[in-house]
Amino acid sequence: MAEVTPRPALSALLGIETGGGPSSGPGRSWRDRLIAQAAELTRSGGWQAITMAKLADRVGVSRQTVYNEIGSKRQLAEAMIMHELEVFLQAVDAAFEEHPESLSTAIRAAATRVLEMARRNPLLHAVLSASHGAESTLLPLLTTQVEPLLEAAHGLVRRHLDTYDHGLDEDRIDPLVDMVIRLVLSHVTAPSTSPAETAENIAWIAERVLGERLNP
Length: 216
What we know:
67% helix; 10 helices; 2 domains; Arc Repressor Mutant, subunit A
């Protein structure tokens, strides 16, 4: 089984300039804490309730520190989106890494994880739902990040697919990847069954396309 080509940094995949803060060193922990606290405040009160002063007070730093570490409020929103997408892509990545012998099983595992995580995490749900056309009151900026999200997910899944003996013609691989991603995101936006049942159905559809035996 060929090794997966390492994916580029998420900022490159998503086309987001994070800016406004150090990328490494002691200051990084402050940046992470600020982003985490901003996400918590957004989940509880919505994006409009966040001010740099409130965020500074919650974390216990000065407003200047917030600006030094994060930059503008828009950059804070982008950093939050980036964090949620990191969580999403890591879950997908791990599912494929854990099931290198069966593509349908990997698809099932990835779909299950994403659907379960989206149910538990309102901010992640908003990020993923925005990619499928849903408007977000949590984070209005999400509408500008739709295409980069889809491209990042597509690129990651495509790189994993290339390590399986799926037998698909080259011109059929991208349509399969697109179908699976959009099916998962549609069920994030409007779930009709449990995550496990939905993931099973998506894996079944993929298995029919692939023509491989579904592993229970």
